[in-house]
Amino acid sequence: MHPYKLKLAEFLPIFLQGLNKLLDLGGNFVTTTTSYHDTVELAGKATKNRRDEIYYIIGFPPGPEKKMRKHLEKALRDLQTDYIDLCFSYLYGTDEGFEIYRKFQKEGKIRFIGLSQHDPRLHEWAIRKGYVDFIQAPYNRLSMIKQGTGDNI
Questions:
Q1: How far apart are CA 116 and CA 147, in angstroms?
Q2: CA 125: distance to chain centroid?
Q3: Taking Cα atoms as reference points, which of 32, 29, 101, 30 lies closest to residue 72?
Q4: What is d(CA 151, CA 81) in angstroms, rounded to the nearest whole number?
Q5: Residue 4 scores a pLDDT above 70
Q6: What is the pLDDT of residues 119-128, one digit of tens each?
Q7: Other C-beta atoms within 10 Å of 130: how many?
Q8: Which of 30, 62, 98, 110 could pair covalently with 131 via S-S, beta carbons 3.0-4.6 A apart?
Q9: How far is Cα of residue 152 from the mean position of the Cα atoms in its chain?
Q10: Is the model more confident about 137 or about 59?
Q11: Confidence check: pLDDT of 66 > 80
Q12: Could you give the CA distance from residue 35 to residue 25 in angstroms, rounded to a whole number?
């Protein structure tokens, strides 16, 4: 059966088994965003006893600090951890947004700040400003070409 047609009760054991198998085989990170349904919570359930084996790479959009903190705190609760290894902005970036990510970093709630965006010009902007510790480059080349940003990569 296609995973999108499974109910959560049916999908969860498959997800838990798959993610634990990934860790057993040497995989060491999970990446998702707070906007992808309940994937952060699922990742937390799947890895709750294996925190020392895994890096969490979690994204949430920039915005007002209150909204960003709400995303961060929910992710921390869902993952059952007190910090996120790599936290990335997606969709767009703002000076204010990256200042808020840096504040969370100083609080010890995130270790590294990144950006995931389909427009390489935004990556360049964030790097030149010194806002990011890492870039999570898009991997869907067809989407990039369709958007007009993949022709010179």
A1: 15
A2: 20
A3: 101
A4: 40
A5: no
A6: 888 889 999 9
A7: 9
A8: 98
A9: 26
A10: 59
A11: yes
A12: 28
Q: Judge whether 86 and 134 are in contact, CB under 8 Å.
A: yes
Q: Give the Cα separation of 139 and 142 in Å (integer).
A: 9
Tell me the two tokens of residue 9.
Answer: 């009760």
Task: List pLDDT tens digits, range 78-130.
Answer: 999 999 999 988 766 788 889 999 999 999 999 999 998 878 888 899 999 99
> Quick count: other Cβ atoms within 10 Å of Cβ 70?
14
**Distance between alpha carbon 34 and the CA centroid of its chain, in Å?**
7
How many CA atoms within 13 Å lie on the side-chain side of 47? Answer: 27
Running DSSP on this structure, what letter comes out for residue 92?
A: -
CB 56 within 8 A of CB 30: yes
Q: Please count the CA atoms within 13 angstroms of the CA of 109 that sit on its side-chain side.
A: 19
